[in-house]
Amino acid sequence: MRIAAVVNGFNKIDEMGKFLAFSLHVEVLLVLALLSCSPGIVWSNTLCQQTNDEVRPHSVSITEFGAVGDGVTLNTKAFQNAIFYLNSFADKGGAKLFVPAGRWLTGSFDLISHLTLWLDKDAVILGSTNPEDWPVVDPLPSYGRGRELPGRRHKSLVYGRNLTDVIITGNNGTIDGQGSIWWSMFRNKTLDYTRPHLIELINSTGSILCIAGLSSTEGLTLYLIPRADLRLFFWMNSHVTVQKVAIFAPLDSPNTDGIDPDSSDNVCIEDCYISTGDDLIAIKSGWDEYGIAYSRPCTNIVIHRLVGKTETSAGIAIGSEMSGGVSEVHVQDVQFYDSNTAIRIKTSPGRGGYVRNIYVSNVTLTNVDIAIRFTGLFGEHPDDAYDPNALPVIEKITIKDVVGENIKTAGLIEGIEGDNFVNVCLSNIVLNVSSNYPWNCSYVKGYSDLVMPEACEPLKERIFPEHCSDCYYMSNQIQSSKSQNRGAWFMSW
Ligand SMILES: *[C@@H]1O[C@H](CO)[C@@H](O)[C@H](O)[C@H]1NC(C)=O
Ligand SMILES: *[C@@H]1O[C@H](CO)[C@@H](O)[C@H](O)[C@H]1NC(C)=O
Ligand SMILES: *[C@@H]1O[C@H](CO)[C@@H](O)[C@H](O)[C@H]1NC(C)=O
Ligand SMILES: *[C@@H]1O[C@H](CO)[C@@H](O)[C@H](O)[C@H]1NC(C)=O
Ligand SMILES: *[C@@H]1O[C@H](CO)[C@@H](O)[C@H](O)[C@H]1NC(C)=O
Ligand SMILES: *[C@@H]1O[C@H](CO)[C@@H](O)[C@H](O)[C@H]1NC(C)=O
Ligand SMILES: *[C@@H]1O[C@H](CO)[C@@H](O)[C@H](O)[C@H]1NC(C)=O
């Protein structure tokens, strides 16, 4: 007999055994019956669009523009001049800016279309510790102001706007934002403007940004950016790929998200390791009345094979800024350890917008305080002009195939009074929970099957058979692009 889907998430025989013992104990029929609710889902090994291993016809080294890699000389002009020069090759197949081994201190510089920024082994681009080397730019219209302070905001170290076909890659190089000056100014409240991101791509469409740790050796364990310190931020982009990137910021650094796709579509994040002081990945789309007015959703976000930890925040977060809407988020094969929260949705009255059609599957947790957390009263508003009656719509959230060891609380799920979060579906979740009160749910309505410890009352009703169609991806066959079965998904009995 062939069965599908239900067993995914259990990659070790003993987990499998535990699962079977549990399910046999509970209800064998349910396991089998579930299958018709959840047809076999087949993914290809990579979900991201692949870049061709590009060869740019032209290449220059940053040293040809007078750069000095001593960690002390400021090279902003060299980066700017090199990129200005390479602009003349944009319509001739593009060009490569080669950054050799060394410590290349620089202020903010702008990328151009058809550019590959290549960091060789032991190349480190270092962010200047002088805030004046980080110019100030307008706030994003969907935020109405800087996120941390009213008014403008510092520009990112590596910045791109209105671009196409940009690649940042290399042989295990590093971009180090040297964020600590910003953290201390944030902490001692001496910031003049909102803090910058490490890399920011704005309004870049129809192309791939690939931040890939290409190397002479193939494999999934080579990473490009071992020290980011500041965020990777994508606003209003289409078709962005982030692959094989490692992002490290100290666990106690303030608001150092790893990657924030914001009001963007078709973003694919794959094979990354992230350890930060805030959310590892936060999916956003604008803030209260500004986000509602701008109305640019974040959609078609794929996250695949992410490993990481955050002591204060979540592995995958949606919101809290989600006023332009967030939908079609597919998260699969992720592992979080020594973390505060694994999966989180944050919103608030005033946000408006929606979070819908979210699918999270095959999550492995170790030492995590809260596995699933929804927060309906997050607060934080840009100003007093927000509309408290602009209530967010949170619906069709499916979380399935989760195993967890040493979990404190399984779920802390708080909707909004008068604005229930609906069609939240939990399937095949087995958590070793220490709390005597593993689920705490309010203003939420949904369904569950095979959840241990047993889900809270508002989610207790079975998914199968009547509610399959109420649950995102419990009834619809997932689109499987060009892929064949890679073996692990189906099991023959
Ligand atoms: C679940 O994810 C892990 C990585 O976190 C992977 O090794 C495993 O193969 C996945 N399981 C299935 C059934 O795809
Ligand atoms: C991007 O496009 C907008 C609108 O055309 C324009 O105002 C802005 O100056 C452009 N920015 C850059 C850096 O090209
Ligand atoms: C984005 O770029 C397009 C063309 O490149 C331009 O028309 C549009 O105004 C830009 N929008 C923003 C917000 O930069
Ligand atoms: C890449 O860099 C990191 C940190 O600098 C190092 O730990 C790792 O071994 C390097 N990997 C390769 C393949 O050079
Ligand atoms: C705040 O931190 C910045 C950066 O470390 C430092 O230059 C400044 O002197 C500090 N200001 C106060 C008032 O502590
Ligand atoms: C949960 O973890 C504890 C401590 O590691 C262990 O003793 C117990 O057997 C585990 N329970 C399950 C159901 O795996
Ligand atoms: C459940 O969560 C609410 C907040 O939503 C909190 O006030 C309450 O104390 C929690 N109950 C338990 C038993 O933890």
What secondary-structure arrangement, pairings included, does this model have?
Layout: E1 2-3, H1 13-37, E2 58-61, E3 70-74, H2 76-86, E4 95-99, E5 102-106, E6 109-110, E7 115-119, E8 123-127, E9 136-137, E10 153-154, E11 158-161, E12 166-170, E13 174-176, H3 180-187, E14 199-202, E15 209-212, E16 232-235, E17 238-243, E18 246-248, E19 259-262, E20 265-276, E21 281-283, H4 288-294, E22 298-310, E23 314-318, E24 326-346, E25 354-375, E26 393-414, E27 421-433, E28 439-442, E29 444-452, E30 491-492
Parallel strand pairs: 2-4, 3-5, 4-7, 5-8, 6-11, 7-12, 8-13, 11-14, 12-15, 14-16, 15-17, 16-19, 17-20, 18-20, 20-22, 21-23, 22-24, 23-24, 24-25, 25-26, 26-27, 26-28, 27-29
Antiparallel strand pairs: 1-30, 9-10
Bound molecules: 2-acetamido-2-deoxy-beta-D-glucopyranose (7 copies).
